[in-house]
Amino acid sequence: MEEGREARASLRLRTVLRHLVSSRPAGLAGAAALTHFPTSAQIATAKYPVHFRYTLDNDLLSPEQRHFYEENGYLVIKNLVSDEDIERFRDEFEKICRKEVSVVGLTIMRDVAIAKSEFLQDQKAVTKIQDFKADEELFRYCTLPQIVKYVECFTGPNIMAMHTMLINKPPDPGKKTSRHPLHQDLHYFPFRPADRIVCAWTAMEKIDRRNGCLVVLPGTHKGTLKQHDYPDWEGGVNKMYHGVRDYDKSNPRVHLAMEKGDTVFFHPLLIHGSGMNKTDGFRKAISCHYASSDCHYIDVKGTSQENIEKEVTEIAKSKYGIDSPITLKDAWVLRAHLVKGERINL
Ligand SMILES: O=C(O)CCC(=O)C(=O)O
């Protein structure tokens, strides 16, 4: 009885082995062919996880790059934008500051301390310009093929440019107002899921700790959205520069020193900010937040994002000359712009 069962089992095993071997290329035989492919146990202990959450399957990112983003929430790509493009963005920005060009929907933000002390027509007090989708020259940044192909690894094929900025960190006026408090960009965004949103941020010159490079807290993209408020800074805080209230102070910080044209892609939950500009030059960067058009709007009422809703809708009303109340979603529908694929929800 026992012998018969063993014989049948052995026959079944031989049949299975024959089947497997015959489906392998000629030359691979028996056990060698079977062990050639990793078992699930081998995969589980492999160097990189098989399950990716923050990146999508793509032909661009190496396993190391993909793993790095999964673990840290950011990825720097060297030399992605040409000097020529950067000079064109710089020229256009300076024309906007000199009022030689006016752009529908643009917001110009000024440093709280510098703007108070003097009335300046040029870029001296400008900390950033926002929402440049109507400026053909600057918006070219958001459509650069070498940027968009990386963006697609995080968003998928239907890509919206949601938020555009050229940041012009001025020499610090002595009040430390050139700092940007640590924050999570998702605090500003009423759309989800967060994992299908990514920021591209390109250094427009060499940026290091002297002129206020980005500082990131690796791995914090795995956490949740935290409460943000204006920090209690003695010298004042720039408008809309909310800071994260509670975070793990023991989390290591990485200062991203970058060369002109280097670009960092980062997750909207990654806690980041930037330091003081201690030089006498302006520190420029251009950036765009992209989202999959499959993302959906959420209602932020009753959440930690309620405080930003009020500010954003007030700014949007005056920018677009709208009298009636508008919602946060309305403000975002107006700023969003399709870059690639199909506009679905956003
Ligand atoms: O460029 C910088 O200094 C930081 C910009 C930033 O994090 C932001 O505007 O959300």
Automatic annotation (TrEMBL):
Pathway: Lipid metabolism; fatty acid metabolism. The keyword Metal-binding applies. GO terms for cellular component: peroxisome. Its cofactor is ATP; L-ascorbate; Fe cation. PANTHER family: PHYTANOYL-COA ALPHA-HYDROXYLASE, PHYTANOYL-COA DIOXYGENASE, PEROXISOMAL. SUPFAM superfamilies: Clavaminate synthase-like. This is Phytanoyl-CoA dioxygenase, peroxisomal. Keywords: Dioxygenase, Iron, Metal-binding, Oxidoreductase, Vitamin C. InterPro entries: PhyH, Phytyl_CoA_dOase-like. GO terms for biological process: fatty acid alpha-oxidation. It is an enzyme of class 1 (oxidoreductase). It comes from the Eukaryota. Belongs to the PhyH family. One of its GO terms (molecular function) is phytanoyl-CoA dioxygenase activity. Its EC number is 1.14.11.18. It catalyses: phytanoyl-CoA + 2-oxoglutarate + O2 = 2-hydroxyphytanoyl-CoA + succinate + CO2; butanoyl-CoA + 2-oxoglutarate + O2 = 2-hydroxybutanoyl-CoA + succinate + CO2; heptadecanoyl-CoA + 2-oxoglutarate + O2 = 2-hydroxyheptadecanoyl-CoA + succinate + CO2; 3-methylnonanoyl-CoA + 2-oxoglutarate + O2 = 2-hydroxy-3-methylnonanoyl-CoA + succinate + CO2.
